[in-house]
Design goal:
alpha/beta, Rossmann fold
């Protein structure tokens, strides 16, 4: 018989770290609310959720790396918003946070989720932070729940 490993969405008994950017807080505050709501609705104890604020999206990766190194943390959710402007700054920041978190997810034995919005406009970011596009913070938390379970089963 084929062995199938699938994650469950049970947050009970788990310890979570959330790294959230202060930059674009109009967006990231909503992402954070969505992530915490998701974790709590799936059984997480709010006392076992640690939120770490960093200045901007570029600073998310090093803070997330420090959290994954903590023995008591089971998973890390990374939340930020990089909105395209008139200069190439967007490309550099979005690229570096993507590379940093991708590398961390690959090298860490812990679940790491990518809840970084990379949008062309503020309207697009608002849509993805709780309006008609759903809440990508919630989705990042849901993904990390599944991955912490899958990684624990492998």
């Amino acid at each position: 018989m084929t062995k199938i490993i699938e994650g469950n969405l049970d947050a009970s008994g788990k310890e979570f770290g959330i790294v959230v950017s202060r930059f674009n807080s109009l967006i990231t505050d909503n992402l954070l609310r969505g992530a915490i709501d998701c974790l709590k609705r799936h059984g997480a104890d709010e006392k076992r959720i640690t939120v770490v604020y960093v200045p901007g999206a570029f600073e998310i990766s090093p803070a997330a790396r420090k959290l994954t190194a903590k023995e008591n943390i089971d998973a890390v959710i990374c939340l930020g918003a990089v909105i395209r402007g008139e200069t190439p700054h967007f490309d550099f920041v979005a690229g570096e946070v993507s590379k940093g978190l991708g590398r961390l997810a690959y090298e860490s034995d812990k679940a790491v989720s990518f809840g970084i919005l990379t949008t062309d406009s503020l309207d697009q970011a608002l849509e993805r932070a709780g309006s008609k596009g759903g809440n990508k913070g919630w989705e990042a938390a849901l993904a990390v729940l599944e991955m912490v379970s899958v990684l624990g089963e492998i």
